[in-house]
């Protein structure tokens, strides 16, 4: 079945950090999606010029309502508009869902490890949301690397009482007071604990900037994880 | 007036003539891979062509490097919508690997270290349209971009240009590869915007 462009109306916009936003959109005819998938978003200027970029879906499927995670970047032709200029009640166009590989399916029962660098947390948040919605008891561990405490997205999702979700936050530049880990980039020591709780076939999902994903992929394969169990999504 | 994205100005118009539909130009070189990056030493690298009858032809790294080399400058187009102009590569045209191979096959499945596969008609790999490249911008191709060697098929979306290339299997029937099996278009022509199934 061909994917078509569909109008998508901005219902709400929430700040996640100083520069990151959640956009809640209504997409008539949306047929649903899997956690981890993304959409293309198309903007059209008055002279007909169009620009398209991909954004990860930040929440599990929910009728015609979708949530996108948008990190505005200084020169971002599309992200700056979506983060701050698109009026609530106005339409863009979306096409999707896209990506049938970097997905977590609610039927999966083995423990899974999610590793996020910065805004790479977006598709992983959809997985956590789906996992919670089906009350999955399969253990999920999120290892989330951010520069500083104020860069954490999805605070309530990550701190809500959920016995089958473990969250470890790694601060690369500035740790919160009382933290027993010095600020610094992710290391094998950060991954060893969560990796030890995986089964040989457990999936690992790694999403973030290219350099982050390369480092994490090398660390995990260096620990002996089967590369075939590691799924990656890179940006930048 | 458009009914979409009120107030959006956009800044990408200057290169519109050179871009396939729905693409935007980038100066960087984004990396997209489905899994971790395999590290393949050149001293154990091999490229093997397997015919539909099972005959094999293999080249070691040194044998591949001893073949006539070409430099080529190409625009590349990723299905995730970035395009990069004037990328400069060095490598061996696929014609050199296939000229002594007897085959009646019409299709090829390219395979990579790490297990990735992608498929295309054999004719898309011939007549100077595709290369195995090992050098990008005068530097050895880095692992995250597919080094030590990748396929380069610039007239198709870039997922067809398999990183960490390891083999090519000639097949009488078309056999969908990795992305082609999970939703990407079987052929992937950027000019016709063949991104996904049904496009």
UniProtKB/TrEMBL annotation, chain B:
<dbReference type="Pfam" id="PF00174">
    <property type="entry name" value="Oxidored_molyb"/>
</dbReference>
<feature type="region of interest" description="Disordered">
    <location>
        <begin position="1"/>
        <end position="36"/>
    </location>
</feature>
<dbReference type="InterPro" id="IPR000572">
    <property type="entry name" value="OxRdtase_Mopterin-bd_dom"/>
</dbReference>
<feature type="domain" description="Oxidoreductase molybdopterin-binding">
    <location>
        <begin position="35"/>
        <end position="179"/>
    </location>
</feature>
<protein>
    <submittedName>
        <fullName>Molybdopterin-binding protein</fullName>
    </submittedName>
</protein>
<dbReference type="InterPro" id="IPR036374">
    <property type="entry name" value="OxRdtase_Mopterin-bd_sf"/>
</dbReference>
């Amino acid at each position: 079945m061909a994917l078509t462009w569909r109008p998508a109306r901005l219902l709400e916009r929430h700040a996640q950090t100083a520069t990151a936003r959640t956009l809640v959109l209504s997409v008539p005819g949306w047929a649903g999606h899997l956690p981890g998938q993304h959409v293309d978003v198309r903007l059209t200027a008055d002279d007909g010029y169009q620009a398209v970029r991909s954004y990860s879906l930040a929440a599990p499927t929910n009728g015609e309502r979708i949530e996108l995670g948008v990190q505005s970047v200084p020169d971002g032709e599309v992200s700056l508009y979506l983060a701050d200029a698109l009026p609530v009640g106005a339409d863009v166009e979306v096409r999707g869902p896209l990506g049938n590989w970097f997905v977590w399916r609610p039927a999966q029962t083995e423990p899974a490890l999610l590793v996020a660098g910065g805004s790479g947390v977006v598709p992983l948040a959809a997985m956590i949301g789906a996992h919670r919605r089906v009350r999955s008891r399969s253990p999920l561990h999120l290892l989330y690397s951010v520069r500083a405490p104020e860069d954490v997205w999805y605070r309530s999702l990550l701190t809500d009482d959920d016995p089958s979700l473990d969250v470890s936050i790694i601060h690369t530049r500035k740790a919160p007071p009382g933290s027993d880990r010095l600020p610094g980039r992710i290391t094998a020591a950060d991954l060893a604990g969560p990796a030890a709780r995986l089964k040989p076939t457990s999936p690992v999902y790694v999403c973030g900037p290219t350099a982050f994903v390369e480092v994490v992929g090398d660390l995990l394969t260096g620990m002996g994880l089967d590369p075939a169990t590691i799924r990656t999504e890179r940006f930048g | 007036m458009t009914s979409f994205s009120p107030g959006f100005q956009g800044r990408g118009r200057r290169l519109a003539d050179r871009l396939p539909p729905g693409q935007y130009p980038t100066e960087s070189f984004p990396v997209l891979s489905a899994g971790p990056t395999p590290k393949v030493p050149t001293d154990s690298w091999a490229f093997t062509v397997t015919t539909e009858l099972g005959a094999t032809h293999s080249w070691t790294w040194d044998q591949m490097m001893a073949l006539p080399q070409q430099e080529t400058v190409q625009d590349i187009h990723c299905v995730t919508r970035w395009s990069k102009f004037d990328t400069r590569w060095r490598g061996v045209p696929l014609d050199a690997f296939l000229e002594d191979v007897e085959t009646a096959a019409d299709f090829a499945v390219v395979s990579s270290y790490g297990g990735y596969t992608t498929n295309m008609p054999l004719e898309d790999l011939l007549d100077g349209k595709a290369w195995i490249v090992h050098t990008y911008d005068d530097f050895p191709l880095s692992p995250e971009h597919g080094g030590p060697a990748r396929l380069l098929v610039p007239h198709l979306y870039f997922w067809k240009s398999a990183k960490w290339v390891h083999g090519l299997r000639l097949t009488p029937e078309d056999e969908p590869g990795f992305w082609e099996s999970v939703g990407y278009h079987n052929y992937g022509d950027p000019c016709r915007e063949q991104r996904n199934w049904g496009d």
